[in-house]
Amino acid sequence: MSDLFANLGLGFAVALSLQNLALCFMGCLVGTLIGVLPGVGPIATIAMLLPITFGLDPVGALIMLAGIYYGAQYGGSTTAILVNIPGEATSVVTTLDGHQMARQGRAGIALGIAAIGSFFAGTVATLLIAALGAPLTRLALVFGPAEYFALMVMGLVFAVVLARGSILKAVAMILIGILLASIGTDLETGQDRMTFGFAFLTDGIDFSVLAMGLFGVAEILRNLDQSETRDVVRQRIGRLLPGLTDLRQAAGPVLRGTAIGSILGILPGNGAVLGPFAAYSVEKRLARDPRRFGQGAIEGVAGPESANNAGAQTSFIPLLTLGIPPNAVMALMVGAMTIHGIVPGPGVMTKNPNLFWGMIASMWLGNLMLLVINLPLVGIWVSLLKVPYRLMFPAILMFCAIGIYSINATPTDVMLIGAFGLCGYLLIKFGFEPAPLLLGFVLGRLMEEYLRRALTLSRGDPMVFLERPVSAVLFAVSAVLLVAALMPALRRSRDEVFTEA
Amino acid sequence: MKDATTRTVRSLCLALTATLGLAGHARADAFPQRPITMVVPFAAGGPTDVIARIVAEHMSRSLGQQVVIENVTGAGGTTGITRASQAAPDGYTVMMGHMGTHGAAPALFKGLRYDPAKSFDPIGLAAGTPIVIVARKDFAAPDLKAFIAAVKSGGTSINQAHAGVGSVSHSTGILFDAKTGAKPTLVVYRGTGPALNDLMAGQVDFMTDQIVNVAPQITGGTIKAYAIATPERSTVLPDVPTTKEAGLDDYEVSAWNAVFAPKGLPKEVGAKLEAALGKALEDETTRKRILDLGGTVPGSGERGPAALQRLVESEVARWTPVLRAAADGTP
């Protein structure tokens, strides 16, 4: 324990130097801004800013780059809440209730609770990394391909629970999502699948392209077509910050979201994506009146937002202790470290204690700064809603186009968001929800990969999923969740059959 | 407030335009007059990207113009190289090719729209990253000979990991199997990170990969190294024997990285780029950065355009039969 304090002391000594504080602040500010701009994600930004960090010492450079990453998580929820565009897979869920809250004139409360929840989650996750980083690493190694597959299946069950309306429609959306994910080069053989000979499809569809089309562009189309709804957002702004009742309502979800997000964040292989979805499902299960979800329930913002920030922090654990990047942003951090002559791996903690503990301390300081940056900004963001929509939507479209182009520098991606926007608009019109589709898309690719890998390793024996204890437990949980989710629907449809008869 | 927002938006737009390289045209005699784009066909943060950024930083200084890295990923790096090969040959678009894109690719990608030996004006070799043969830490064999014997006698019950078709670990792994006569089951991963994770956890038995990726895990003791496939030992891993020392003669591979330009580059422009690359590789700090990663810096005789052209031709000739045979062997 005294070690922990000594280490944290060292960390704060490093992080509190004037230069590092300034860099941390810069990172957080840039992160918030790019998080708010739809499409311009942390990957593109960190890649662009890498050369600038050459002149800095490695600790300062990494503190700044890390700030961009978790700053973007804060900023990303702003766009999700205000204009219904999830910047990252982790903020898809926030659109569900966050944007509804904005439509009801409670945008400020949604933004405020997102910032406060994120801060709390960030604090807890930072402490967790400091205290338990090394032992938690073992969790990452327990998860083999079979366990990941089981986890992804559980994720799909969350998607069913997530559904607001018809379960049948939700399942259809999930399946389409999985199908879309199978477009691109086959991992094992290197052959093209479902690309119709188009070169731009050989690497599959980018998540941001799909998300921005189905959510962002579709939302714009819908707003343009219903003149009255877009005024609803502008009508009343209401309170800017959450009151005591809101905080009390959100406390439980924030705690649970933090726990769920922290655990899933540790898993390499992008387990963190599941955090917000899992948190949302849990809140919806626990709620006394689940029908409020999707109509602007504050729990539906507080839980997932805490989970996504906790996951963003704990995903540094596999990077710092194993040297294994769990997602694309972390892979970039590995690159940043190597460029600065520090090769991340099991040795970082002992060889570069300055870097290790300095970064951890800076994460907490960064979260504090983000709270200070974001709470006053809430007023500014909310007042943006007063801008007439005829001026707003071209700006949103332009930022989407620039953002998407910045990811892969391919013009076809920009055209694809238009096409997916049209699809998304039709889906809304026919009462299908895009959220389960997106989750199916995110999980589809991972599921296929882990399924095939698990079966390769077991030489084709499917029993491997039940023989390994962790995977068996996960499957059992999925089964229970699925039955619980389907029961009311089954009962209802049976009732309907009877009434019709 | 509104003013501030517009200003931020405007400066962001400007920054974007600048980085996307949309500046005006320039003549060859005063090259370079605007930023140069170096296309890296792999994700930011990977070994090739890191080498490119280290070299580009020094080149920017000696050319007096920024050398901007643009990561265009996909299809084992061939997406980025294809696009860069179609750019105007004015020196403002260059690319960091490597063993895969300019050696293994013709055998792996049927519809490849460039010829590594004919579609480019080679500028120079930048760095080599040696290949290391690594296994899970509890693999019983004490040395490389015993390891090869175990892998051979294990047949398909041995699991060999690689990071996807077209990756360095894929081609070098297949070469290892071909040279030793091993027939392990191949387990495919999306990238080196997850493959290493499963190797550490003992889910798979072994793989071959670039030293940059595996050195920290080897020194940390989470995986074990049997040999390094270079003529000399690496200063980063002084205890790991070379393949020759360990008794495997015919397996020396390095994932080299080299700068290419689209075919038809004006001579003076090519010479300026070559000189800038040479200066970067002679600079002490740049060299040290590459060496610290476990990379090798080519001597002045082995890095020029002519030497690079020979390397490309010999690499294509080396990889094509091995990879074709492996592809025919699997259904």
From TrEMBL, chain A:
According to the UniProt entry, the coiled-coil residues are: none
Spell out the InterPro entries in the cross-references: DUF112_TM (IPR002823)
The superkingdom of the source organism is Bacteria
Q: Which residues cross the membrane?
A: 12-37, 109-132, 139-161, 167-184, 196-218, 324-343, 355-381, 387-407, 470-490
- Keywords from the UniProt entry: Membrane, Transmembrane, Transmembrane helix
| Domain DUF112: residue ranges | 21-439
**Name recorded for this polypeptide:** Tripartite tricarboxylate transporter permease
Give the species: Methylobacterium planeticum
Question: According to the entry, what is the taxonomic lineage of the organism?
Answer: Bacteria, Pseudomonadati, Pseudomonadota, Alphaproteobacteria, Hyphomicrobiales
TrEMBL record, chain B:
Q: Which residue positions does the secretion signal occupy?
A: 1-28
The alphabetical list of record keywords is:
Signal
Residue ranges annotated as coiled coil are none
User: What InterPro entries does UniProt report for this protein, alphabetically?
Assistant: BUG, Bug_dom1
Q: Which domain of life is it from?
A: Bacteria
**A Pfam family matched by this chain, by name?**
TctC
PANTHER family per record: BLR1237 PROTEIN, TRICARBOXYLATE-BINDING PROTEIN
- What family does this belong to? Belongs to the UPF0065 (bug) family.
What's the name of the protein?
Answer: Tripartite tricarboxylate transporter substrate binding protein BugD
Q: Which organism is the protein's source?
A: Methylobacterium planeticum
Organism placement in taxonomy: Bacteria, Pseudomonadati, Pseudomonadota, Alphaproteobacteria, Hyphomicrobiales
